[in-house]
Design goal:
single chain, alpha/beta, Rossmann fold, 6 helices, 7 strands, globular, binds S-adenosylmethionine
């Protein structure tokens, strides 16, 4: 099956598959911010095999796509804390949260602050395309690199047990894995 998400075009999906293969047949809960045409949600629905896995998507606008029963989509602004918390209370804790939404600092930071507490121990919080912050000719994305740096500084306080930065031409991902304790213990 072909899926028209830039995660495949830019090679990020290979990184995701390396990371998530231990979860492929487990019952998990995944939340992706940024649905666009729904292709990444369709991909996750195909990739994660457990029938009780739940795949949640959020976006300002929802595409005209008939998703499977286990794929739940919500029209939700990344800045709407009340709505974000409502969705997280209903479907969390999440084994995976991927922020592939606006890629603006304010929104990305807001989602991290509201949603990181809803990552399960052992789960992943992923910020995609954070390197847009290097594009000095597009100030809308300013602050994204600093946001990732700020989270790295807070790793002990956030009980993050593992983190990786993937940065190549045209692809960027930063993941933060929640531990029962921080990386030092
Ligand atoms: C890069 S696209 C998502 C691509 C999709 N994840 C995929 O891999 O096919 C980014 C999406 O973020 C959404 N978005 C932008 N700002 C947002 C906001 N403030 N709240 C919610 N979604 C937002 C856009 O509507 C757009 O659909």
């Amino acid at each position: 099956m072909a899926f028209n998400t830039d995660k495949i075009a830019n090679g990020l999906m290979e990184n995701y598959k390396n990371l998530f293969s231990p979860l492929q047949y487990k019952k998990i809960s995944i939340l992706e911010i940024g649905i666009l045409e729904g292709e990444s949600l369709l991909y996750w629905d195909d990739y994660f095999k457990h029938s009780e896995t739940v795949i949640v998507g959020l976006d300002l606008n929802l595409p005209q796509v008939e998703f499977a029963e286990r794929v739940k989509v919500f029209a939700c602004n990344q800045n709407n804390n009340e709505h974000l918390s409502e969705v997280a209370e209903k479907f969390g804790p999440f084994d995976i949260i991927i922020d592939d939404g606006s890629h603006f600092r304010k929104e990305t930071e807001n989602c991290f602050e509201v949603l990181f507490p809803y990552v399960a121990v052992g789960g992943y919080y992923v910020i995609e395309d954070w390197a847009a912050g290097y594009w000095r000719d597009r100030p809308l994305y300013a602050g994204m690199v600093e946001l990732v740096s700020d989270i790295i500084i807070r790793i002990p306080e956030l009980s993050i047990c593992e983190s990786r930065i993937i940065l190549e031409k045209n692809k960027a991902l930063a993941f933060f894995r929640k531990g029962a304790t921080g990386w030092q213990e």
